[in-house]
Specification:
Oligomer: single chain
Strand content: 25-35%
Keywords: Disulfide bond, EGF-like domain
Helix content: under 10%
Number of strands: 70
Organism: Bicosoecida sp. CB-2014
Distance between the termini: 197 Å
Protein name: EGF-like domain-containing protein
Largest sheet: 14 strands, mixed
InterPro entries: EGF, LE_dom, MEGF10/SREC1/2-like
GO molecular function, one term: scavenger receptor activity
């Protein structure tokens, strides 16, 4: 009927009436194997001892989870049944996956897990669940449950009562159970234990509903069990829950004789760090409901009182982790609310009702967070004498740090060095070096701004170094740009390379259009209509287009090159064998033959004309054209048709008259008179001879 004993591996904490003490050399947040010392008046001790009605024996059997080995990471992905009174030990991480249930079904079963790390995505269920993790407990959307697994109906120090022909009263624990409000109005259970006792009680059961004859009609709801988690770090996310609620009473609509609900149980969390996670979750030790929908019709049984929650940590409970110790709902009244105790460091806060927390410091500690010692001491337990803090500090009297509080600008365990941002023998304040620099601080520092890579002092490391650009000066300009261009650097720079005159390209390593030679220093300018600029590092400047040339004495490409003709100098001349093409802009593209050659290609030679000349040229006949008086294919005979005669064919017969004939040819004599006719002296025509005269 009493509390389950807290495991011996626990964090020592001061609580009213009880003192858990450890050797002082053990850090407070990791003390194990503590001994319990009772302090206070005799009556106070008696009052505290009265709450300890029965201690359950901690598990003594040792085992590993089914399917797992002690020293290897274990993943439980299927339902597993655990044995009561057993410690499951794993030196490696254990994960209970979503959909898997690890449970002990024995009444009042106590199961203990000693693990390196535990992740709960599924369900871990037992009347008493003890988790002792050297590392982390991560309730990742899962459930650790002792709901309705505490004291059975109508048992426990805060049990609900029953009466003939009456509904049952609600169970009590951290809050009082509610009396039934029908029949003989059997009472609800009383509060037992206290928020400051740090004893892990189960919740008590609600009373039965009895008939007129005293027969049990409905069984009261059981109290909530105990969930005890000790870890270096606890995380709860995705609605993960530690559930020690009391069971609801048994009721039927329109039937007033329902059974009483059980009270909430106990949740105890001892962690060095209670870490905030998105989603959060719940520590739930509410009392059970007499009527789950809070209906005024039906069961008049009593609802259960809330349980108790204990949190001992070095960090505060995250705001998105709800701690609920409300009493259950019912038609008669809501059950009494339970209590919450939080000890954050040396600050102990309790809440007995729905009111605000009442917080006190442990003896020897003061301050809003109970982190300052009283007297000339310091340290986690305020047991160390104040050190010599030199000329630049004083004793801190704090539970953390080195024992010294340094003057402004000074730091170190004994305040003998400069704080960050201070420099020199007097630890003077550094100038602000901006977001991208730091002060050369320290006793030996000179206070100069030391900029991170890419930044320069201007004056507070707010400008990019030469050749760096971008909002964080992380990008470097192309080094090739330096030779013939300027990089657009700086915080607002783009890294673009702006080239010098005559240069172009992403990194200014090529000549710009219209510039040529190895230094890109010469410009083509206007090359005219029949030329182009041969630019680039190997370029030569203005160059005539194909087919064009610069005439002698000229400066632009106005003539066709040899072998080309036409207005655009693109037509090819034929191969003139013995002549030349009539080329050029105004040319015909025809062959002009040399003397004594004919034909389209001037490929035919004229004959040797003795006394004349050949009709040569592209369109010539190739025949001899004879001089006057000459005739024949080669002009080597007299023109007899013309009457020419003599060795030189120079004389012509002319009109020889009626009595003469012309005798032409090289051997011809010219006009020869007919027989009997003669040319008289001084005459030109033949006359007849006198009678008997001849010759």
């Amino acid at each position: 009927a009493g509390p389950a004993r807290r495991p011996t591996r626990r964090l020592c904490a001061w609580i009213p009436f009880l003192r858990l003490s450890c050797p002082v050399q053990v850090p407070a947040q990791h003390r194990r194997g503590c001994t319990m010392a009772i302090r206070g008046s005799r009556s106070a001790v008696a009052a505290a001892a009265a709450t300890v009605l029965l201690l359950l024996v901690s598990p003594t059997l040792a085992a590993t989870l089914p399917g797992c080995t002690a020293d290897s990471a274990c993943v439980v992905s299927a339902d597993v049944t655990l044995a009561g009174g057993t410690t499951y030990t794993h030196t490696a991480p254990v994960t209970i996956t979503e959909g898997a249930t690890v449970a002990c079904t024995v009444a009042f079963c106590e199961v203990r897990l000693e693990v390196a790390d535990l992740t709960v995505q599924g369900t871990l269920r037992s009347a008493i669940v003890t988790v002792d993790a050297s590392g982390e407990v991560f309730v990742d959307g899962g459930l650790i449950s002792a709901r309705g697994l505490g004291r059975a109906a109508q048992t426990g120090p805060g049990k609900g009562f029953s009466a003939v022909n009456s509904p049952g009263g609600g169970g009590g624990f951290g809050g009082a159970g509610v009396d039934a409000c029908f029949g003989d109005n059997p009472g609800g259970g009383a509060v037992y234990g206290a928020a400051g006792t740090l004893e892990l009680f189960m919740g008590s059961g609600g009373g039965h509903a009895l008939s007129v004859s005293g027969q049990q009609l409905r069984t009261g709801g059981a109290g909530g069990g105990v969930i005890d988690v000790t870890a270096d770090k606890l995380r709860i996310t995705r609605g993960g829950t530690l559930d020690a609620r009391g069971a609801d009473g048994d009721s039927i609509q329109w039937d007033t004789l329902g059974s009483g609900a059980g009270s909430g149980g106990t949740i105890a969390v001892v962690a060095n760090t209670f870490k905030y996670e998105l989603g959060g979750g719940t520590l739930d030790a509410r009392g059970g409901h007499a009527t789950p929908d809070n209906s005024q019709e039906g069961s008049k049984a009593g609802s259960g009182g809330g349980g108790r929650i204990y949190v001992i940590a070095q960090t505060a409970v995250p705001a998105n982790v709800d701690m609920n110790v409300d009493g259950g709902f019912g038609a008669c009244a809501q059950g009494g609310h339970g209590s919450v105790l939080m000890q954050i460091g040396h600050k102990v806060c309790t809440r007995e009702t729905l009111g605000a927390f009442t917080c006190n410091c442990e003896p020897g500690f003061v301050g809003d967070d109970c982190d300052t010692c009283t007297g000339s001491v310091w340290g986690p337990d305020c047991t160390f004498a104040c050190p010599d803090c030199g000329a630049h500090g004083s004793c801190s009297q704090r539970t953390s740090g080195s024992g010294c509080t340094c003057d402004a600008g000074w730091a170190g365990d004994r305040c003998d060095t400069c704080a960050e941002g201070y420099y020199g023998a007097s630890c003077a304040r550094c100038v602000w070096c901006g977001e991208h620099g730091r002060c050369n601080s320290g006793i030996d520092g000179d206070g100069a701004c030391l900029c991170v890579d890419g930044w320069v002092t201007a004056p507070t490391c707010n400008a990019c170094a030469d050749g760096r650009y971008g909002a964080d000066c992380a990008d470097a300009c192309d080094a090739a740009c330096d030779a013939h261009g300027t990089c657009v650097d700086g915080v607002s720079g783009t890294g673009e390379c702006i080239c010098d005159e005559g240069w172009d390209g992403d990194d200014c390593t090529a000549c710009a259009a219209g510039y040529f030679d190895a230094a890109c220093s010469q410009s083509c300018g206007d090359c005219g209509p029949n030329a182009f600029c041969d630019d680039g590092l190997a370029g030569v400047g203005c160059t005539c287009s194909a087919g064009w040339v610069v005439p002698d004495g000229g400066s632009t490409c106005t003539e066709c090159e040899a072998g080309k003709w036409g207005g655009d100098c693109t037509q090819d001349c034929p191969a003139c064998v013995n002549g030349a093409c009539d080329g050029g802009v105004a040319g015909t593209g025809l062959c002009v033959c040399d003397a004594d050659f004919v034909g389209v290609l001037c490929d035919a030679a004229c004959p040797a004309c003795d006394h004349g000349s050949c009709d040569d040229g592209r369109d010539g006949s190739g025949l001899c054209e004879c001089d006057a008086g000459w005739d024949g294919a080669l002009c080597d005979a007299c023109d007899e048709d013309g009457g020419y005669y003599g060795p030189a064919c120079a004389d012509a017969c002319g009109d020889c008259g009626p009595h003469a004939v012309c005798e032409p040819g090289l051997a011809g004599a010219g006009c020869v008179c007919d027989e009997g006719w003669r040319v008289p002296a001084g005459g030109s025509t033949c006359v007849e001879c006198a009678a008997l005269r001849f010759g």
